[in-house]
Design brief:
The protein is an alpha+beta fold. The protein has one helix and two strands, in the order H-E-E. It is about 20% helix and about 10% strand. The relative contact order is 0.17.
């Protein structure tokens, strides 16, 4: 079973970070290298934070708006 909120410690503090964003649409991008550098930096930050690779990025609802990244 997933632990309930009552099992969480009162000593937990959130980490609030200010991460630079990107101001361009991603919907017409079809490759990792074409993504804005700030977006790629964000993906790397998430990977490092979770200690997991991100190999699939969706930039829209269509199948051709999926970027597969070999990591």
């Amino acid at each position: 079973d997933f632990p309930g909120y009552e099992t969480l410690s009162q000593e937990i503090e959130p980490i609030i970070l200010d991460i630079p964003g990107w101001e361009t649409s991603l919907q017409n991008i079809n490759g990792w290298d074409a993504l804005p550098e700030k977006f790629r930096d964000y993906v790397r930050f998430v990977e490092k934070s979770l200690n997991l690779p991100i190999s699939v990025i969706s930039v829209g609802p269509m199948r051709n708006q999926t970027i597969v990244r070999l990591v």
